[in-house]
Amino acid sequence: MKIGIVGGGQLARMMALAGYPLGIRCTVLDPNSDACAGQVAPLVLAKYDDVDALGRLMDEVDVLTFDFENVSVPALRTLADRTGIFPPLDALECAQDRLSEKTLFTRLAIPTPPFAPVASRAELDAAIEDIGLPCVLKTRRMGYDGKGQAMIQSVADIAAAWDRLGDQGELLLEGFVKFKREVSVISVRDRKGNIRHYPLSENKHRDGILTNCFAPAAADDVQGQAYHHAEKLLEHFQYVGVLAVEFFDVDGTLVVNEMAPRVHNSGHWTIDGAETSQFENHLRAILGWPLGSTDAIGYSAMLNWIGAMPDPSLALNSDRAHWHDYGKKPRPGRKVGHTTIHTESAAELHAEMAKFATSLGNQLASGADAFLIKR
Ligand code: AMP
After folding, report:
1. CATH architecture of the region 114-175
2. Which one of 4, 119, 129, 181 has the largest count of C-beta atoms within 10 Å of its C-beta?
3. Which CATH topology does 2-85 take?
């Protein structure tokens, strides 16, 4: 079977790698000749909205998917009869705009922070009046890893936030959520409508970028809520493939932050820590194959390497660590690899993480300690 992937980043790379043992071959399309998925799969060099190149790729493959949100929906819509495109373009289009996304959450009765569209300074003032302080101003489109966001703590911050983002076109103001922790669910729906969920992951961010994940999260109390909310979204879109939904845990009630209609960074632990990885299950779902088990095997901590890879010796000398290098050039803020520490018990994970914490210091999010203490 052949799969085309629009976007050639690390998610496409991990999908391609998951496909090989199953006899699945992936071809990736990306405008950058050094796209890291191109190191492990054939690369078509083309822009994401190049309808001719997309059409040629679709003629060669059984199904088309994507590894990031900001692919061109209009270009793919014109080609939708050439071959199956999964996840559905409606889900992709909705996730591309924070306003449509949050409007849908509200329609489906999934709790989300108060929000209002903002297109002028006067609208910003009115929205702040309505929503209150503190709040977060965000670009509606193209924001990721905390980019395109300005925190407004007090009236004194309003002018600076507007100066930073006011010229970015459509914006959204959101109430700031005082959460206890952040969790996400990775769910997958196959072509027959069967749904499976992975155990929740607890996620730590620094400067808006995901740094560490712990799974299964201690989340019996909120896991049911996450599954229920994800199922509403999966059914709404008649979704096929992996969907990630990120939540704030506010004293036992989940409030949704955003959804990603694709495999997700907070599911990387599933490569080493689950019966079937999110990448394999995504490929299975979009090809119309049965889904694999989403059960966790033991306990996992996933550490993102951001900017540059650290010294590999600690991970390579550990019997419990798995080293993943995406083959990317170092650049500040760029996700270049990850390590999963995988153990049979929470206590063992605690001990192993402590070694990494001593050695890596500030590469670990401060919240990691809180997680370890809690377990
Ligand atoms: P986003 O790009 O919207 O996923 O935001 C990145 C990170 O910023 C989130 O994972 C949170 O840590 C933080 N954040 C974003 N929006 C809010 C909010 N409304 N309230 C509190 N924290 C937020």
Report:
1. 2-Layer Sandwich (3.30)
2. 4
3. Rossmann fold (3.40.50)
Determine the distance separating the centroid of ligand 1 and the alpha carbon of 208, expressed in angstroms.
6
Q: What is the pLDDT along the chain (375 residues), one digit of tens a residue?
A: 999 999 999 999 999 999 999 999 999 999 999 999 999 999 999 999 999 999 999 999 999 999 999 899 999 999 999 999 999 999 999 999 999 999 999 999 999 999 999 999 999 999 999 999 999 999 999 877 777 899 999 999 999 999 999 998 899 999 999 999 999 999 999 999 999 999 999 999 988 899 999 999 986 689 999 999 999 999 999 999 999 999 999 999 999 999 999 999 999 999 999 999 999 999 999 999 999 999 999 999 999 999 999 999 989 999 999 999 999 999 999 999 999 999 999 889 988 888 887 776 545 544 444 444 344
| Closest ligand 1 atom, residue 136 Cα | 19
Instruction: List the alpha helices (DSSP H) in 237-345.
Output: 269-273, 278-287, 313-317
Nearest CA to ligand 1 atom 1: 146
Q: Atom of ligand 1 at shortest distance to CA of 144?
A: 2
Sheet holding 115-118, edge to edge: 115-118, 171-175, 135-139, 149-152
Instruction: Note whether 279 and 271 are within 8 A (CB).
Output: yes
Say which CATH topology domain 181-371 has: D-amino Acid Aminotransferase; Chain A, domain 1 (3.30.470)
| CA 109–ligand 1 middle distance (angstroms) | 20
All structural domains of the chain with their residue ranges: 2-85, 114-175, 181-371
β pairing state of 181-189 and 241-250: antiparallel
- Distance, CA 311 to ligand 1 centroid (Å)? 30
Q: Which residue's C-alpha comes closest to atom 18 of ligand 1?
A: 176
93 CA from centroid of ligand 1 (Å): 20
Query: What is the value of pTM for the model shown?
Result: 0.95
- Which residues line ligand 1 at a C-beta cut-off of 6 Å? 113, 136, 143, 146, 174, 176-177, 182, 205, 208, 257-258
Q: Quick one: three-class SS letters along 197-228?
A: ECCCEEEEEECCEEEEEEECCCCHHHHHHHHH
Distance of CA 278 to the CA centre of its chain: 11
Domains 114-175 and 181-371 share a fold: no
